[in-house]
Specification:
alpha/beta; Enolase-like, domain 1; TIM Barrel; 2 domains; 3-stranded antiparallel β-sheet; 13 helices; 17% strand; globular
Length: 405
């Protein structure tokens, strides 16, 4: 087995640093945000974030067995060490890669602080001073997520008027791009299992899209997310029906496993198609990119393997003249890590923001002004990812039954 442990014998004393501890904390926002800290013997703490949900804490705890004592500046080597050491735990995909993603982000933050450089500089430099944000919106009280299930609201929440009203409200906040969920409870009628949409369900979706377009016009970029719900034929029919509305994209039309089926859907429509958030590491996205099975690739950096792994995906997308717009449902920590990524990638387009309903989102970090200003986040010049946690807010919102840092 490859040995990615420290083999380095020649390093300047000023950079001879060791990891002394790794900790996790689950903050209960609109999702369960998995925050990670890496302590060093230089007095520097790196912070990162893994994708939401259970299982991450235990996996991060396991990495202490081989990461304590390692040098946090060797970010790439340590990421590969995690994948190798935990390959027998399903480490080439799934939750192990998710845990590794958050650790990798915390390592970049620690490295930036140790070297007195912002993370984007460590990733290769800057293409832009600010990153454009698209807001993920919900019409009215459209749904609530608790313990992984979707609870649909009353039918009024899904009226075209409800979507249009919310679109207007968000655009008036300064956002120039937004996205709505387009999968609805009526999609399950008459059969909740086969993924086939009735003509009535497709027509209702068309009416929603039309109402939003009429309200906000065509100068605002508009996307819709379908959450992997539909059969290939229904995905094609829906995309065809929406072609006249000049969408930024339709996202996750079909289940994520079958790349050939995804390619079939993408090539059958002129409506741009986006997917990628359920894939792990560059290997699971390369075929889709090279076969042009997607128009806009949307990996989640806190899922796919971290910032550098996302850059590998972006490189392949750039070879195929394809933009990348990362999926992001994070707290400000993961969001700011993605901002540095957006600064460093030439074919980067937009970054998702999915916490409009969390009125204390900005309070989680020690900052005087909101991160998002008129639909953009400025790329910070501070060392690391450029933000620090407000420990009191973290403690106030720590998931019940779990521990804080």
């Amino acid at each position: 087995m490859k040995d990615f442990s420290n083999q380095i014998t020649n390093r300047d004393e000023s950079r001879d640093v060791e990891i002394t501890d790794i900790n996790t904390c689950v903050v209960e926002g609109n999702f369960e945000w998995n925050l990670i800290t890496i302590e060093t013997d230089a007095g520097v703490t790196g912070i990162g974030e893994s994708y939401r949900g259970g299982g991450v804490h235990e996996l991060v705890e396991y990495t202490k067995r081989f990461l304590i004592g390692e040098n946090p500046l060797d970010v790439e080597r340590l990421y590969r060490q995690i994948i190798q050491e935990m390959s027998g735990h399903g480490g080439t995909t799934g939750k192990v890669v998710t845990a590794a993603s958050g650790i990798e982000i915390a390592l970049w933050d620690a490295a930036g602080k140790l070297l007195d450089l912002p993370v984007y500089q460590l990733l290769g430099g800057k293409f832009r001073d600010e990153v454009r944000i698209y807001c993920d919106c919900h019409a009215g009280e459209a749904y609530a997520v608790e313990d992984g299930s979707t609870e649909y609201a009353t039918a009024e929440a899904y009226s075209p008027e409800a979507y249009a009203n919310e679109a207007r409200r968000v655009v008036d906040m300064g956002f120039t791009a937004l996205k709505f969920d387009l999968d609805l409870e009526m999609d399950n009628d008459p059969d909740p299992f086969n993924g086939r949409l009735t003509n009535g369900a497709i027509e209702h979706k068309r009416e929603i899209v039309e109402a939003v377009r009429e309200e906000i016009g065509y100068d605002v970029d508009l996307a819709f997310d379908c959450h992997w719900d539909y059969s290939v034929e229904s995905a094609k029919r829906l995309a065809y029906k929406l072609r006249e509305y000049d969408l930024m994209w339709l996202e996750d039309l079909i289940p994520p496993e079958n790349m050939a089926a995804q390619t079939e859907v993408t090539k059958a429509t002129k409506t741009p198609v986006a997917t990628g958030e359920n894939r792990f590491r560059v290997h699971e996205l390369s075929e889709l990119i090279y076969d042009h099975g997607v128009d806009i690739v949307t990996p989640d950096p806190t899922t796919v393997g971290g910032l550098k792994e996302t850059m590998r995906i972006a490189d392949r997308a750039e070879e195929n003249y394809m933009p990348i717009s990362p999926h992001n449902v994070c707290s400000p920590v993961g969001t700011m890590a993605c901002v540095h990524l957006g600064a460093a990638i030439p074919n980067f387009d937009l970054l998702e923001y999915h916490a409009l309903e969390v009125d204390w989102w900005d309070d989680l970090i020690d900052r005087d002004e909101p991160l998002i200003q008129d639909g953009y986040i400025e790329v910070p010049e501070k060392p690391g990812i450029g933000v620090e946690l407000d420990e009191d807010v973290v403690e106030a919102h720590t998931l019940e039954g779990t521990t804080t840092f």
